[in-house]
């Protein structure tokens, strides 16, 4: 269980006056404006059809599959991808941090599946600490999704960032905690990983 001060790190940014809408089931969304043919076709393309709520609800609403660091400066063929469903890989990346080249543009990309229900107001958050002190916090909206008709995963690319540079930045390990959460505070995924900065990838 997280310590209270760690939860403060994940307090979402609130937009004044914004109130999340009440959650609806897939069937409720499917039956809204049922007489509108073009809307019905659009909802069907998202997997929102009457009877779709028969999906396997024993699974979580959302499964985060991978986290990837993408950069135009990565050498050809090199991929920095973390399988969130693999406990051994998550444990290994804490001991053997991902190496990020200093002073380059990169972006975080996640792949996830919506297993059932409609999810809304979902965001990705990450808090970066070094020697226990918070040095960065990122919060990016994923948006709202329904289950993919073919069960395929969605991919979301977040805004580019620039990695720090300099000898001080290169010393030590950066510990990251990532979380996928919705407006109601439901946490779909929560994992830890680490990275180091270096002169080269």
From TrEMBL:
InterPro entries: Ig_E-set, Rho_GDI, RhoGDI_dom_sf. GO terms for cellular component: cytosol; membrane. Residues 1-10 have a biased composition (Acidic residues). Its main location: cytoplasm. The keyword Cytoplasm applies. It is found in: Cytoplasm. Gene3D superfamilies: Coagulation Factor XIII, subunit A, domain 1 (2.70.50.30). Keywords: Cytoplasm. Pfam families: Rho_GDI. It comes from the Eukaryota. Residues 1-22 are annotated as: Disordered. One of its GO terms (biological process) is Rho protein signal transduction. The keyword Protein biosynthesis does not apply. GO terms for molecular function: Rho GDP-dissociation inhibitor activity. Belongs to the Rho GDI family. Regulates the GDP/GTP exchange reaction of the Rho proteins by inhibiting the dissociation of GDP from them, and the subsequent binding of GTP to them. This is Rho GDP-dissociation inhibitor. The lineage of its organism: Eukaryota, Fungi, Dikarya, Basidiomycota, Agaricomycotina.
């Amino acid at each position: 269980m997280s310590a209270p001060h760690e939860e403060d790190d994940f307090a979402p940014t609130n937009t004044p006056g914004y109130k999340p809408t009440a959650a609806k089931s897939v069937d409720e969304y499917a039956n809204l404006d049922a007489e509108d043919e073009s809307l019905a076709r659009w909802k069907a393309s998202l997997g929102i059809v009457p009877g779709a709520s028969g999906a396997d609800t024993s699974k979580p609403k959302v499964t985060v599959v991978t986290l990837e660091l993408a950069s135009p400066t990565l050498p050809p063929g090199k991929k920095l991808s973390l399988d969130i469903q693999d406990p051994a890989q998550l444990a290994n990346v804490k001991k053997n941090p991902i190496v990020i080249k200093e002073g380059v543009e990169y972006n975080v990309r996640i792949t996830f599946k919506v297993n059932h229900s409609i999810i809304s107001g979902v965001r990705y958050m990450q808090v970066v600490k070094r020697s226990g002190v918070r040095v960065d916090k990122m919060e990016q909206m994923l948006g709202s999704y329904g289950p993919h008709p073919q069960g395929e995963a969605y991919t979301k690319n977040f805004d580019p960032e620039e990695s720090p540079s300099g000898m001080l930045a290169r010393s030590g390990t950066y510990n990251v905690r990532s979380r996928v959460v919705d407006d109601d505070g439901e946490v779909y995924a929560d994992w830890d990983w680490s990275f180091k900065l270096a002169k080269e990838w």
